[in-house]
Amino acid sequence: QKEVEQNSGPLSVPEGAIASLNCTYSDRGSQSFFWYRQYSGKSPELIMFIYSNGDKEDGRFTAQLNKASQYVSLLIRDSQPSDSATYLCAVPHSGYSTLTFGKGTMLLVSP
Amino acid sequence: DAGVIQSPRHEVTEMGQEVTLRCKPISGHNSLFWYRQTMMRGLELLIYFNNNVPIDDSGMPEDRFSAKMPNASFSTLKIQPSEPRDSAVYFCASNLQGLHTDTQYFGPGTRLTVL
Known about the structure:
- The complex is a heterodimer.
- Chain A is mostly beta strands.
- In chain A, 0% of the residues lie in helices and 54% in strands.
- Chain A is globular and about 45 Å long.
């Protein structure tokens, strides 16, 4: 059973700061990683995925993967109050289309 | 394009009653997932269908839960009899089958309260 661990938070940052969200996983064979965002009372939506070691940037979002240390991070630059949400890390089951989700980290960005 | 459609959006029922949740996946998607989300356990996969066939139902908590997908555009999740511990938000998601990299698109969810 793959395990995905996240700090539940809340992580509080001021507007304009960099928010850093972390996720650790137990299966060394995991090859790809997903970050979903979930606003309160809404459904999860994919914001980024990453396969290879290193960084992947998409606008204000950067995903960082370190397979040796088995963690993946999501950095949000120039945080905005609209980024306030719960961020879920997910790892796929090998050979399937299913995902195992972490419990998520709540991010609060204050104006 | 319409997204994943779920009904009802809210359901309040009494313990022991039967509950049926419904889902219409995005047209053209042939994989469908049912999830349950609670504060304690997070987002858990209950069952996964591919081409209308259940592939992985290891997450179904017990025999009180059952799911069907009679065709590519409709799926149900049934709980009978319901218990207070079944109270949660139930999400349906769909994607294009094949790569595990396929984005899963979630419906708005059904908030179930069992009294």
